[in-house]
## 1
Amino acid sequence: MTLHELRDRLSEVDREILEAVARRQSIVVEVSAEKHRRGQPTRDFEREKQVLQAASAISERLDLPPGLARDLMRLLIRSSLTEQERDRVAAHGMGTGKRALVIGGAGRMGRWFVDYLDAQGFGVEVLDPAGPVAGFPYLSGLPQEDLDHDLVVIAAPLRETERILRALAERPPPGLVFDIGSVKGPLRSALAALSSAGGKVASIHPMFGPDTALLSGRHIIFVDVGDPQATEEARMLFEPTMAELVEMSFDRHDGMIAYVLGLSHALNIAFFTVLDRSGAGAAELTAISSTTFDAQISIASQLAGENPRLYFEIQSLNEAGGEVLDHLAAVASELRRVVRAGDEDGFVALMDRGRRYVDILRPADEATRA
């Protein structure tokens, strides 16, 4: 058989695989509807475990590589969950007959909220000086007349968010208003001003990026601004999802975010900055890269492509951030000292202590989580 004929056979098998996936997805829609009718949660960890175990058994019988079937089924499970979550969000219909305004809706996270609220049935409008979003009514700036939307989401840079909150405090809209800022301290007084003026105010922090399709395993933080009813209304927007909803205070939020975002961002900025200043060519490094280097480059390259001004805000506007950077600098100095001093025991102690901490942080096998 010729190479061309063999490739034709492969193409035919590929088509059959995709057709089988399409049939599976159509059944997923029926499963989602049945779960919703029975009031059952979207995720069923026991069922996922059974699917993966069955895949392993089948792959063994077919003499397939042991991880191939499990990896394939993980992808299908994740796709299934994404489809079911979308169906549940749409069926929830919390926004039916209501209007929402997304300020900053042309931005990446703003666009995520535009699509999410649209899926919930809201009549969504976009306010963004950067320009319109296709398919949605558009405002270039705050109108002179009072806003009468049922929901206002502020998805703007922190300093701009503060300005918008203060402008809304002069004419509080009747509906729920919440920001999605990554740091809350700089917004505290503006949020309080809007609340004191009679606004219904909440503050949330989605701990995921704009490319996130499935919220299972993702967190959404709700920061206490003294209006439990508004916070509950904001929480209800995400009830049909599988996101983990967490409540905390202003100070607790910013202190934790200094590590969760600030430290991880700083480490990756340091990583690619050191490489850039090293004089080593990127192509040369890639040619001899290791598994660890490749994994780190993957994370660092994603961060390098983000908005640097947003990342500067996360570093500079968080009062807890300076202490974290001081810790990072101190640890880097300590690592340099033990290496230069030939202090093997000191080096081992650093790794052992870190290993014990990381073992606590390490997430469960992705196969059982998504």
## 2
Amino acid sequence: MILWLIGMMGSGKTTVGEKAAAELELSFIDTDLLITSVSGRSIPVLWEEGGEESFRTLERQMVASAADSGPVVVATGGGAVLDADSVALMRSSGLVVWLSATAQALEERVGTAGGRPLLVDPAPGARLDALLAERRHLYAAAAHHEIATDGRSIEDVVADVIALWRAS
């Protein structure tokens, strides 16, 4: 079974995933890192060269690859839920946990950090708010469970994720 972590950029998927995997003694996969490793290019370069559609194709392939990895913790890219086939694969191969956060919390976490093609907007907070509004229902439909991360320590979120994993 696979532990899938979904959510917006800045929701804590990678940090929580790494710590949960270590505690559970499982391998950890970050699909965004897998994309850059396999393609040999950064995500901003991939977006520039092929656009969002090309990137989403790679993302779909990496989700499928991760699904074949056996017991593992996987942090998906924020847009993985945009693909219905990826969502179906995640739900059927393991436990899907949505790490949710408000747009304000996400903005505080990612700010104007580089490497995020969807945040090249001059007002990243407004863009995050719009993306969250567009995707909220997709995250809710994809997830078996939601864990709110606002105002919580990484350790507390990891403990909640592990408790859900052990109960499943």
## 3
Amino acid sequence: MGGSPSEPQARAFRMQTVTKNEVTTIRCSGRLKHQSCETFKQHVKDLIPESQRIILDLTELEHMDSSGLGAVVSVYVSCRGANCPLQLINLSKNVRELLGLTKVLSLFEDCGKYMVKMP
């Protein structure tokens, strides 16, 4: 019952950010759920002024709930308003299905076209 004490940490949402040539890549891992949405949104919005493009690499994103979906849409709107394209790459099957079912995937026309290596 409950699992090991390190189990919740393994599922916690984390971000690793790299900026190169005014393109910022944020590798997201874990679970983007209600508890981490405000931190995620603020982190991305803080990066907009220095970035010509923001890429969310979702390779290691295990799960996204409806609040996470709302957070992604929120940062999309902020980026679009600042003329800073937001791209999603490396979507898992589950995340792609969620974005597709909610018609959000169509906002990201270039989805998956860019491969960015993180250090």
## 4
Amino acid sequence: MSKFKSLARRLLPGQAIEHLKRARDRSSVQLLRALTASSFLRRVHFAFFSDAFDREARAVVVGHLRHVENRQGADATNYFLRRAVHRLEKGLIMQPRKDVFALDYVDDAVVAYECSRTTGSADEVCWAHDVLAAYFEATASHPVIDAARQRFERAGPPPVRCENVRQTDAELVPFAAGDSAPAISYEDFHSLAMQRRSVRWYQPRPVPRDLIDNAVLSAVQSPSACNRQPYRFMIFDEPDDIARVSELPMGVAGFNHNFPAIVAVVGQLRAYPHVRDRHVIYIDGALAAMSFMFALQTQGISSCSINWPDIPEREAAAARELNLAADERIVMFISLGYAAGEGMIPFSQKLSLEQVRAYGRPESSSV
């Protein structure tokens, strides 16, 4: 396509090219109106004339397969177990709490616990054990619950207690919200939000890995759908790695040579068994990414979020360079480092409160 455009510029006069552009724009608008009005035409268009969704569709299908394998304890993180245990937690905190609930998935939760008990993450398995134990203690007798309870008791506790808990010997079960007094004031947080800006120019010195790890630890406290946390942070801070990885995203030409580190936030579709959830990796990954950047800022480390467009050639290059699994999708890249004092930062005027805030039902859209 780019070769055709270059040839047309050489052979056609400027006025002819402008006429062709306007004709293209008119036909594009007509096509979009037709696709907007007809689901049949949309299916035909994307089946035969556009491969825009092919890569995501393949990742979703592979993710479904990986989800089945994952449910059986194939990975250290069991996404089915995480969702099932979180659903049990929500049942345990209901007011009033039912004596019988979770009949449709508690047995599957116990099976997933069995599969991950010796192969899964110690933190995850301990959490699953403690919540399941609390569930069986709180629920009344029922054939489904009784059978699951017996299976759970046969499985036994995890072979190793976890280390990453609020209190070393605490049970990892729902707890009272307690005093809701904020840890920091709104004024302090707003000051942090105002201070954090997309910084593209950095000092030529490395960022200590323990500070980056601190930011990741804060990032994983971000909310995610059913606590599945379907993402990972791939961090590159060696010069050769940075040089290769920073060539992958667009929009960094001219300043990517000065990155002290670059991070790829990668979503994993194996966390979900349904097509309807295919976009959650981007939501949960972005929530974690924002917490990550705020945590960097509190430690004096600047950052810049970098957009990742779905372009076939770049998708293929990223899959090779990052060794991505077939169900993994890039959410975004983030550069980070100590800001260069003389480096400029775009003002980036933000939308006003009135532009982004609406109470109640908005007026209907024209589309």
